[in-house]
Amino acid sequence: MKDFSWPVRVYYEDTDAGGVVFYANYLKFFERARTEMLRSCGFEQDRLMALDKLIFVVRSVSIDYLKPARFNEQILVGAKIIEIKKTSLIFEQTITRQQDVLCNGKVRIACLDAQSMKPTPIPIAILEQIT
């Protein structure tokens, strides 16, 4: 599967009083990378919802925090699909600062019908572009 990475600058709002990224914000960074990965393949999530009546939602997350990211650092957020099922994808995601791995995780994303909120197959057009 394709590797994707997205550079992120750590802003003051991302940190706690000690200047360290607040743990929940790593999940926001993961989300940005997955969104940008879809965008780089030509898919905008608002258009998918409006035109195709589908949304992608987080089903589960596992994350390991290894080293802290700090205010004003430039980090790189990676996203790689490691498993594809009919209605879901599993991403392996890593945040690095130069050669240091700061955290890594696995995120299961489900494809849902935007109206019924029930699982729906991931469109072939999307699968062809992201794999």
UniProtKB/TrEMBL annotation:
CDD domains: 4HBT. Keywords: Hydrolase. Pfam families: 4HBT (PF03061). The keyword Hydrolase applies. It comes from the Bacteria. Residues 18-103 form the Thioesterase domain. The keyword Hydrolase applies. Belongs to the 4-hydroxybenzoyl-CoA thioesterase family. This is Tol-pal system-associated acyl-CoA thioesterase.
